[in-house]
Design goal:
transmembrane, Thioredoxin-like_sf, MeN_DH_accessory, alpha/beta, 43% helix, two-stranded antiparallel ribbon, Glutaredoxin
Length: 198
């Protein structure tokens, strides 16, 4: 009988120790989640602010199409700044095409860059980007204060910037649409803001 009591006490101590360990692990998982919370597009403070109307740019694409960036209309635009020499830009092109196809009911994709026309035409042909208008405009890049690539700006049908930032992966690209849907400047600003408890 004494052995049974000792075994029961040891079992209780073991269960209590396991409960403490599970609690400590759950707390560590919570801390880890906070540290690696979703990171949206890396928004910069330069260029037109989110919610600000952008200057209209009437441009001609490499294939001769007329492109009006920031014009009022029924559709939104995603202006994606890239360069033929940017390796991250090249990596994102299939993702960009996929997202543009998925959002085609309300969104037009405009590719933008500046520099040598021939190099960009070769790039468009090699990467099969001819379904999207590709504009070369130093003024457009300066208006958005694009200093690093790849960079994207989501402009609504009223010509207002809805989201913008540096894009390095699919998650950051989709964060522009999430920010628009949530009505916030960026996913990071949404995560950093206090939210009411449910």
């Amino acid at each position: 009988m004494d052995g049974l009591v000792v075994a029961f006490i040891l079992l209780c101590i073991l269960v209590l120790g396991l409960a403490i360990a599970v609690f400590a692990l759950a707390r560590q998982v919570g801390i880890l989640y906070e540290r690696i919370s979703p990171m949206g597009a890396l928004m910069t403070d330069s260029g037109p602010a989110v919610g600000e109307k952008v200057q209209r740019f009437d441009l001609t694409a490499l294939d001769g199409r007329a492109v009006a960036v920031g014009a009022a209309g029924p559709r939104s635009q995603l202006v994606f700044f890239l360069s033929p020499t940017c390796p991250v830009c090249k990596k994102l092109l299939p993702i960009l095409s996929s997202v543009a196809a998925a959002e085609s009911s309300w969104l037009d994709l405009v590719l933008a860059g500046d520099g040598d026309v021939a190099a960009h035409r070769t790039f468009v042909a090699q990467r099969r980007l001819d379904k999207f208008p590709f504009v070369l405009s130093r003024e457009l890049g300066m208006a958005f204060r694009v200093s690093r690539l790849p960079y994207a700006a989501l402009i609504d049908g009223n010509g207002l910037v809805r989201a913008k930032g540096l894009i390095n992966n699919r998650e950051q690209l989709e964060s522009l649409f999430n920010a628009r849907d949530l009505g916030v400047a960026s996913i990071q600003s949404y995560l950093d803001a206090p939210h009411p408890a449910h």
